[in-house]
Amino acid sequence: MIQMAPSILSADFSRLGEQVNLVEEAGAEVLHIDIMDGHFVPNLTFGPALVKSIRAQSQMRFDVHLMVNEPEKFIGDFAAAGADHITFHLETTPHVHRVIQQIKEHGMTAGVALNPSTPLDGLKYILEDLDMVLLMTVNPGFGGQKFITNVVPKIQVLHHHLTQTRSACQIEVDGGINLETAPVVGKAGAHILVAGAAVFSQPDPQQAVKDIRQAASL
Ligand code: DX5
Ligand code: ZN
């Protein structure tokens, strides 16, 4: 079954706790938490303190998406704050294998993210070590952007490879996922759908979680 990962980037921060509870009650399995450093991406968000502040009130898997240079500096802090999973970008460090090991040593699962223009080739010697690959379907940095259709073949190729090799590694897609694009990524083979604006900018975020999941499974 397709898993839903609402992104709090588009939540109302003045009542973040309530918004987290809302999507959890709607059945979301994963909470997607976008960390931006103003260097790798042209925007700033939050840090481990925010993760810690919402950890106590949710059982969802906390999926931390690091859009930061030198990701190795922050793994321990997010682990201590209660992250279950960390994804970092292939483009942010020459020591990709080392960072994956570091994440696992802290008892978390590990993912690597690829920007829309980054080919799958860089995964070749690390795929067996990964729990998840995050394929960006927008350029990282902002919520509410338009889905980049050219990424769809990349999802298909990765899905085919994972099936052939009987890999348990999951494919997460992030950016511009909504009722129109969910069926496209669902068919292409995505396992986890991140959705920010299409959930939290809607009048009924709970219905949105259910509708997007259903649209992706058709
Ligand atoms: C973008 C972030 C996304 C963002 C997606 O850089 O990684 O997780 O929240 O937002 P939507 O779903 O609105 O495109
Ligand atoms: Zn994200």
TrEMBL record:
Coiled-coil region: none
GO cellular component, one term: cytoplasm
GO biological process: pentose catabolic process; pentose-phosphate shunt
UniProt keyword terms in alphabetical order: Carbohydrate metabolism, Cobalt, Isomerase, Manganese, Metal-binding, Zinc
Cofactor remark: Binds 1 divalent metal cation per subunit.
Catalytic activity: D-ribulose 5-phosphate = D-xylulose 5-phosphate
Pathway: Carbohydrate degradation
PANTHER family: RIBULOSE-5-PHOSPHATE-3-EPIMERASE
Function per UniProt: Catalyzes the reversible epimerization of D-ribulose 5-phosphate to D-xylulose 5-phosphate.
Full protein name: Ribulose-phosphate 3-epimerase
Name of the gene: rpe
